Amino acid sequence: MAALRLQLQVLAAAVVLAAAAGCGAFEFEEATVDAIQLGFRNGTLTSTALVRFYLDRIARLNPRLRAVIEVNPDALAQAAHADAERRRQASGGALHGVPVLLKDNIATRDRLNTTAGSLALLGSVAPRDAGVVARLRAAGAVILGKANPSEWSNFRRVDAGWSARGGQTVNPYVRSATPCGSSAGPGVAAAANMAAVTLGSETDGSILCPSSLNSVVGIKPTVGLTSRSGVIPITPRQDTIGPMCRTVSDAVHVLDAIVGYDKLDAEATGAASKYIPRGGYTQFLRADGLKGKRIALCIPCFVGIGGERWDVYTKHLDTMSEHGAILFADLDIATNFSDLSDQESLLMKAEFKLSLNAYLSGLLHSPVRSLSDVIAFNNAHPLAERLKDFGQEDLLDAEKTNGIGAKERAALRRLHDISTNGLERMMKEHQLDAIVAPNHNAAGVLAIGGHPGIAVPAGYDKQGIPFGICFGGLKGYEPRLIEMAYAFEQATKVRRPPTFKK
């Protein structure tokens, strides 16, 4: 059904593609949210034409890239509605009429599936839109479709970007390179101009990694800044939803639209709402945003970075200094976090079972109602789910857990100690605005404390494979991280569109 739906939508797009070219001289490829809104205002663009462009782009590129699982059969109708609204009133918000692709763990109450890439959830029906989707719809955005995740957001350890429903997502720059992270589909789709903007999720590295290795900007918000209601979970302690876009400004426009309190995720969003600045986040898009910022190198994060990449990072650090940043290269996160991954994994398995069972039990319809049902489904469909290749050991281990017991509480205390006596202490004692790290190498340190990070394109190696740089901070540091990321982006202008090498 999903494949047929995609084919029908592709045919519709092909028939009307010529109309997209009738909107004057609008440059569709690499179009930013600001450029799109200007096109709407000056009459060189309609939302309908924009959706048709992206549907055609998906039709041409998705057989190669596998970034999109499913397109929305109602996308053109939503675009026409946005165009009609615009004719009735002169202006809308930044995302009004703008097509958005969602990672396939973000629920929609429409004709799209929400499956986390698993065939087990095909045909399930969510009771309502996810909290972030409700906010996107309220902002007038067009839900273009669902992007391919690593199945179960890589809690089932598959190849990065593979799911039984979507196949293998491919890096658009160098086919042999990893697309990285469970939000690989949104990252690749954004990089390859298959949507104006995309939305991913992160538990530990799933936004920061695919953003870095597909040359896009990814914002991993403070946990609770964006609602997780209606999102297929791993752990509410670390899960967060954020934008993956081609520019910092686009990502910030999306962030502005999706932050805020949600009664269905009341504890986390209530606690984080205090961090949302009056006037939103676009006010922090400042070209001088590096000036006076105190930034420390995440020393352990640069271990193993050498050669040409180290040379590029060194130049970027010089650029930050030239733009007024105060860099600290002699500070270290003064705690041992060698056991971080083991403790995180132990705790996460119990949390995954609890939170997934709660999500599945709340669906209006679902072929599976528990983690044990998912495991049984995989056993019954070993070829489609590639059990021989990937197994399902983490799912089995999670099923063996029985809530949060003594081992899990000990792991929770240890992770709290690693965070408070490591990153948090260092940043507070030295009054730092951020740490800086290559790619997603600081993801674990940020994840366990619920802290935010922004990945920005940093360069390309000799093969043409992208790499990124990440600015990370403490809870609520989004304004200063946006200032730094935007200023860095404007000073370096690294990003270039993919060339789709073999």
From TrEMBL:
InterPro entries: Amidase_dom, AS_sf. Residues 50-439 form the Amidase domain. Keywords: Signal. Transmembrane segments: none annotated. The keyword Signal applies. It comes from the Eukaryota. Residues 1-25 form the signal peptide. This is Amidase domain-containing protein. It comes from Urochloa decumbens.
